[in-house]
Amino acid sequence: MERFGAEANTDGASFKVIMQKSGKTFEIAPGETINDKLNEHGIDVPVSCQSGVCGTCLTPVLDGVPDHRDFVQTDLEKASNKRMAVCCSHRNLRH
Ligand code: FES
Question: Which protein residues are within 6 Å of ligand 1, measured from CB?
């Protein structure tokens, strides 16, 4: 299999991410990724492709329904909302 690079789709409205352990809340602006925001605040998330194809950044979802924009999880995994790729996914504003 060969994959080609692509920019993460960061379209959409702003949303909040709450970190469970620290209790910190971050506002993710349009054009930004969760990973961008966390890095800005010194929180290091393991990443590789930063475009949703490798799965390195998959992070547990404790609440909310993500708009999964990765290409690594199956439809079933996405529907379970157990993990999200923080390099590219956003909040699903329909929920
Ligand atoms: S870093 Fe590859 S899917 Fe997020």
Answer: 47-50, 52-57, 70, 72, 85, 87
Closest ligand 1 atom to residue 87 Cα is 4
Question: Tens digit of pLDDT for each residue in 34-56?
Answer: 999 999 999 999 999 999 999 99
List of domains in the chain: 15-91 (3.10.20.30)
For the chain, helix (H) and strand (E) counts, in that order, are 2, 6
Long-range own/partner contacts, residues 38-45 (CB < 8 A, 24 or more apart): 38/86, 43/19, 45/86, 45/87
Whether this prediction's pTM lies above 0.70 is answered by: yes
Q: Three-state DSSP class for 88? A: coil
Whether residue 66 is predicted with pLDDT greater than 90 in this model: the reply is: yes
Nearest to 83 by CA among 23, 40, 65: 65
| CA–centroid distance, residue 45 to ligand 1 (Å) | 10
